[in-house]
Amino acid sequence: MNKESTAVDLAQQAAAGDNFTAAYDIERIRADFPILKQKVYGKPLVYLDNGASAQKPRQVLDAMNEAYETYYSNVHRGVHWTSQTSTEAFEGSRKKVAAFLNAVSENEIIFTRGATEAINLVAASWGGANLNPGDEVILSHMEHHSNIVPWQILRQQKGIELKIVPIDDDGNFLFDEYQKMLSEKTKMVAVTHVSNALGTIVPVVDVIRLAHDKGALVLLDGCQAVPHMAVDVQALDADFYVFSGHKLYGPTAIGVLWGREDLLNAMPPYQSGGDMISSVTFEKTTFKKSPHRFEAGTPAITEAIGLGAAIDYVGAVGLGSISAHEQGVLQYASERLQAVEGLRIIGQAREKASIISFVIDGIHAHDLGTFVDRAGVAVRVGHHCAQPVMERYGIAATARASFGLYNTREEVDVLTDALIQAKEFFG
Amino acid sequence: MFDELRDLYQEVILDHGKSPRNFRTLENATCLAHGNNPICGDMLVVYLTLDDDRRLADVAFQGQGCAISVASASMMTEILKGKTRDEAKRLYKGFHDMCTKDGFDVSELGDFDEDAIDRLKMLSGVREFPIRVKCATLAWHTMQAAVDGEENISTE
Ligand SMILES: Cc1ncc(COP(=O)(O)O)c(C=O)c1O
Fold it and tell me: Residue A192 in contact with residue A167, Cβ under 8 Å?
């Protein structure tokens, strides 16, 4: 493994001392991400599409390579050294995720393919077993399609009702409306922690408190939260929390469902097969407890190990420092972009993570995306898998810059200049 | 940086994108179809009036989209007016090939207005921007669906 001192080493050293705040060394951090040296069309890559997927630090790539090159094998199945070593690393990652979310136990951490699969798991397993006709599930108007469609399918199968908490023009979650929707019929509140399309941070502590008052459970979609802020599922008092590894500087095809252990052990399996049973006879199969009950088949072993490394990385830099850095970039970007004539920021909620959606009068987002791409800038354009949000604002698409721990104000300048040029170009 | 972008966004394209021709509904359309590109949210409706000998007496469209998709729709309505269904289908296929295959020339397609063909050729710049091919072809897929009597198409 690489012995050069890295941002993580430095951050760990700094964290050991007490003057950690000075340690946000952006150059060191950027040096950890090999892709940031890449040129596109002869220009430095300015990667502002972290909301879709974040880039990977060398520490993650090294951890995955090391696994493949030195100890890879299937997990939970072998008496041999490679299988035991792989199992330790894989289960070690589960412990890291548990600590990352401040879960009570690693038995509450289920590895999935991503947030999408995690939500589908809860909807199918918990929803399938617990919901009856007339029961209500509350979502917000800001949900990603992956937190809408599984509940719609359940509505079809079970005759449940879906209630949608509206948002105001700035993209704030309308808490009063939410309060009015809650009733004894409410069985589940499934809302995003941070909106991927607007950046809004939803007041989840209060959302959860009120839901629990009515006896409803709460699932939080943390995809856009975990890269930007420390999350403590016990302090939140949540029931389920999901996120995807690839937006947290880890690999794709690995994600997390956290759930309270008592809930998980009362839920039926989602998929079935190897690794999730205690015993099988042709008469009767007994299922393992969580997490293995929900991890049928060979899991994404190396990806889980990579996710563990990503969590180490983010932890060493420090989510407090990351958040402070990103909020600075967000504020700077909001000011610079707002000064571009004809540009309108969609989503100006009181509390936001470092995501800015915008439109420019007379230029379609798709054309903007193509234009700034040639300046080396990667932004997402489209509806961001949140069509209800687009429809709420009467637009077809936005361009979205989403900032990660390695983005800088200079990169905001490159984006802004490219947008000004685009305005001239499309005139 | 502007050079490659100019190949895609030629003046004529920007002009049609900003001031699309035949951008209206046809009250007495004999066929219409909705097209949408779910990736970028573009939505078009293409209206056709077919006369007795299966000619496209009038062609129009409405909707919203990027400069490429709107320009392509606008140019399409111009070139197809007065053509037969079969000619329209032939041009659809030719245009599609031009947007996806190197060296394909729509001039070979036969008896179409030369200026209009020249304008269409400008859209071949999308070949260098593969993600934008669907923008250029959306209106054409939709027109084809309208001619065939299908009502909804999606380019995904
Ligand atoms: C808020 C939110 N929820 C869910 C998802 C789905 O994540 P994945 O595609 O990794 O399952 C995303 C990703 O775009 C997201 O931003």
Answer: no
In chain B, DSSP finds a helix count (H) and a strand count (E) of 6, 4
Contact B64 A396 (CB under 8 A): yes
The two three-digit tokens of residue A183, written as one number: 């009733």
Q: What angle do CA A96, A101, A103 make, to 5 degrees?
A: 90
Look at residue B48 and give its three-state secondary structure. Answer: strand
Residue A155 is predicted with a pLDDT of 98
* Residues of A annotated catalytic, as ranges: 385
Distance between CA atoms of residues A42 and A403, nearest Å: 22
Please check whether residue A296 is in contact with residue A271, taking contact to mean a CB–CB distance below 8 angstroms: yes
Name the 3-class secondary structure at A354.
coil
Ligand 1 atom nearest to A52, measured from its CA: 14
Rounded average pLDDT over A250-258:
98
ipTM of the prediction: 0.88
Q: What is the largest CA-CA distance in chain B?
A: 50
Strand partners, B92: none
The number of the ligand 1 atom at minimal distance from the alpha carbon of A385 is: 14
> B149 CA to middle of ligand 1, Å?
37
Query: Which tens digit of pLDDT belongs to each residue from A200-245?
Result: 999 999 999 999 999 999 999 999 999 999 999 999 999 999 999 9
- Strand, coil or helix: A116: helix
Q: What are phi and psi of A297, to 5 degrees?
A: 85, 175
